[in-house]
Write a structure and sequence with these properties.
CATH architecture of the largest domain in chain B: 2-Layer Sandwich
Helix content of chain A: 40-55%
Number of helices of chain A: 10
Order of helices and strands of chain A: EEEHHEHEHEEEHHHHEHEH
Largest sheet of chain B: 5 strands, mixed
CATH superfamily of the largest domain in chain B: ATPase, nucleotide binding domain
Number of domains of chain B: 2
CATH topology of the largest domain in chain A: Nucleotidyltransferase, domain 5
Oligomer: heterodimer
Number of domains of chain A: 2
Largest interface: A-B, 60 and 48 residues
Shape of chain B: globular
CATH topology of the largest domain in chain B: Nucleotidyltransferase, domain 5
CATH superfamily of the largest domain in chain A: ATPase, nucleotide binding domain
Order of helices and strands of chain B: EEEHEHEHEEEHEHEHHHE
Strand order of the largest sheet of chain A: 3-2-1-4-5
Helix content of chain B: 25-40%
Strand content of chain B: 25-35%
Chain lengths: ~350, ~250
């Protein structure tokens, strides 16, 4: 008997629903993206995002079921992102998932958004099994996670201040790029010289797996301001390339050292920033040098989507991790937090 | 059997009705979040009233105005239940529901819902024999302007709704303006069912595919953006969501 998962994701500006078969086969993955709507505001507006989620939530569920060619009656469990994310946005997905679960009696699985990002790797790489090391980089998170098993995560270190994606977006905004700015920096960096400007790399001593990007951000801002004050020309491509190198070097070197220290030879990357070409190339090169195997969730699976939530939900359901109908959205919650109701 | 869900304010209220009879209602004003308590309350209500959810003929939910987040929790739950059970969904104005808290009065009824920043969402009603009729559709107004207007009207008016906290301090012992008792001030799902009768009878069914709350107010960010970009408004094309639909073949 096959196991079917229905999953919902609404933690930021994407409303998404997916259907999976046996945890790893994506039958459908429907994403309603609000990116064009938030562009004029220069970032995601929580109230605007929530208003679109309540409009989109049932249509995406309906489409995901139709595309998968199954009905609600065939679903074995419903996974939903309960955090972290924008609370008003999360609440829409959680309310809808609880309404479906209550009406049908289908069990509810409470999924952590970043655990979902890590599990996107299982969908993109069918042969991948734990243990492995995961570099998790997104607009809200930067961390190195040791995935010891499907239900065992150990965070080696995370950011003390800005997330990597946040730094990308802030610098992009100052340089005049529309939201989301990360991809613009990535594209521009290809044309510039990464050695042109030396920006600081914080906490780069070996054995330290924490990150800090606020000093780097200030340094880039100071560089741009002082050039402007002096009336000097700015080579934007060089700034983008040098800034990106400063971030990527730190991410890659810490991952290298962590893998060596733990003796892990499988490296995965997860989160929205994993789509950054500069980071992908650098990680791939590092893995070749060290003889590691490199896995990445290509394309749509690296962005916010419900299929990755469904994959995580499947493994949680296998482990008996279900929630009751009191489930609440949690805007700040660490990876590995207990969200399910412990069996008595 | 009809289920009603009211989460437009801090009060959480659910009720179930059989034909015209109220089988039960749970109304809580104890400071718990809607997200945590709403579905457990529906579960408890149906169990206590011995109603099988498969016997529900429809779900009634507050459309707004009210707390944006509260409205979305109620509507998200109602839409998902209506979709899963394949039963009709009905939307009722928060203000229509509140007006039905005050039965058969000769006073005018002014429903007021807190709209933040000294404002209230308001609507006016009166009874025509035993039928409540709307005099004025919902509008958003600064509380002091509403009080001035109604004081000048010289009619007996009873206020109902959580907007009273903005209205009451402004009404200084006016002989014709009354505040409903606090127990009648709060939105109740039972009153929502009374207000829903005409919608149900008329078959005004909402679809879970496109029903959205009636916020009345736009988001703060949109209002500020438009103030700053007045010259661009004429040519503005509002973008919409883009739906990506991916089916993987492994």
């Amino acid at each position: 008997m096959s196991v079917y998962t229905l999953a919902l994701e609404s933690s930021c500006d994407e409303t998404s629903a997916a259907v999976l078969k046996d945890g790893r086969l994506v039958l459908s993955n429907v994403i309603s993206s609000q990116v064009p709507i938030h562009q004029k505001f220069g970032g995601v507006v929580p109230e605007v995002a929530s208003r679109h989620h309540i409009e989109q939530v049932i249509p995406v569920i309906d489409k995901a079921l139709i595309d998968a060619g199954i009905t609600l009656n065939d679903i074995d469990h419903i996974g939903v992102t309960y955090g972290p994310g924008l609370v008003g946005a999360l609440l829409v997905g959680v309310a809808a998932a609880k309404g479906l679960s209550f009406a049908t009696g289908i069990p509810l699985v409470p999924v952590h958004h970043m655990e979902g990002h890590i599990f996107a790797n299982f969908l993109a790489n069918p042969e991948l099994e734990p243990p492995f090391l995961s570099l998790v980089v997104s607009g809200g998170h930067t961390m190195i996670v040791h995935v010891k098993g499907y239900e065992e995560f150990h965070i080696l270190g995370q950011t003390r201040d800005d997330a990597a994606g946040e730094a990308f977006d802030k610098i992009a905004r100052v340089m005049g790029f529309p939201y989301p700015g990360g991809p613009h920096i990535d594209a521009l960096a290809k044309e510039g010289n990464p050695e042109a400007i030396e920006f600081p790399k914080a906490l780069s001593e070996e054995g330290n797996y924490e990150f800090s990007f606020s000093g780097l951000k200030s340094s880039v801002l100071n560089y741009l301001n002082s050039k402007n004050l002096k009336g000097e020309d700015i080579n934007k491509a060089d700034v983008a390339a040098s800034f990106q190198k400063a971030i990527v070097d730190v991410l890659v070197e810490k991952t290298r050292h962590a893998a060596k220290a733990l003796g892990e030879t499988k490296i995965t990357v997860a989160g929205g920033v994993s789509a950054n070409k500069g980071l992908q190339v650098a990680l791939e090169t590092m893995c070749k040098e060290e003889g590691f195997t490199y896995y990445k969730p290509s394309g749509i699976l690296s962005t916010d989507n419900a299929a990755m939530i469904g994959c995580r939900a499947y493994y949680m359901a296998q482990a008996g991790k279900f929630s009751d109908l009191h489930l609440n959205a949690k805007p700040n919650v660490p990876i590995g937090a207990v969200s399910w109701v412990e069996a008595e | 059997m009809w289920l009603a869900i009211e989460t437009s304010s801090l009060v959480s209220s659910v009720a179930v009705m059989k034909e015209e009879h109220l089988l039960g209602e749970i109304t809580m004003q104890a400071g718990l979040t809607h997200s945590e308590q709403l579905v457990p309350h529906i579960d408890a209500l149906l169990t206590m009233a011995q109603v099988n959810k498969r016997d529900l003929k429809g779900i009634v939910v507050t459309k707004g105005p009210g707390s944006f987040t509260g409205l979305r929790i109620g509507m998200g739950t109602a839409k998902a239940m209506a979709y899963a059970l394949q039963i009709p969904l009905y939307g009722v104005s928060t203000l229509d529901g509140l007006a039905h808290n005050i039965p058969y009065t000769t006073h005018q009824i002014c429903t007021v819902v807190d709209a933040q920043k000294k404002h209230v969402y308001a609507a006016l009603y009166t009874y025509d024999r035993s039928t409540l009729v709307s005099i004025e559709a919902p509008f958003v107004i600064e509380a002091s302007h509403l009080v001035e207007r109604l004081e000048a009207q010289g009619k007996e008016i009873i206020f109902v709704g959580d907007g009273i906290k903005r209205i009451a301090p402004l009404v200084k012992a006016h002989p014709l303006l009354y505040m409903a008792n606090p127990i009648y001030q709060i939105p109740k799902a039972g009153s929502l069912l009374v207000a829903a009768r005409s919608e149900i009878a008329a078959g005004n069914i909402e679809s879970p595919m496109d029903m959205v709350p009636q916020y009345i107010r736009r988001s703060e960010a949109e209002v500020l953006w438009e103030e700053k970009h007045k010259d661009e408004l004429d040519n503005l094309v509002e973008p919409t969501v883009t739906v990506v639909d991916t089916v993987y073949k492994l």
